[in-house]
Write a structure and sequence with these properties.
Small_GTPase, Rab_GTPases_membrane_traffic, GTPase activity, four-stranded mixed beta sheet, Rossmann fold, 4 helices, single chain, alpha/beta
Length: 121
């Protein structure tokens, strides 16, 4: 199995003064809105237009859960097949993944099985 995500028992400089640090992935086919979802979560603003992600983009947000401060590192991956080997290298150490599909595209929904398999390996 995969090792546990990096966790600190108390606030420390390593985690930016937070109690916990978790890495999450946003994965799915190209054009499904992964970057827009990440932007909405981090900036609380809707992104009107977005270019395809090349490789991987990164965002972070600090949230409070049960009185503890948690820093979420969120990695937005490219959905195009040609970047698949590049984005796969960023999956290591992730605590979880948000799988994204386009509700109007059965093909992007069916592809989730492959994305999930990639995330688990």
């Amino acid at each position: 199995g995969r090792g546990a995500p990096p966790v600190a028992s108390g606030p420390s400089p390593k985690t930016g003064g937070t109690n916990f640090l978790f890495k999450f992935l946003v994965i799915g086919s190209a054009g499904t809105g992964k970057s827009c979802l990440l932007h909405q979560f981090i900036e609380s603003k809707f992104k009107q237009d977005s270019n395809h992600t090349i490789g991987v983009e990164f965002g972070s947000k600090v949230v409070t859960v049960g009185g503890k401060t948690v820093k979420l590192q969120i990695w937005d991956t490219a959905g195009q097949e040609r970047f698949r080997s590049v984005t796969r290298s960023y999956y290591r150490g992730a605590a979880g993944a948000l799988l994204v599909y386009d509700i109007t595209s059965r093909e992007t929904y069916n592809a989730l099985t492959n994305w999930l398999t990639d995330a688990r390996t």
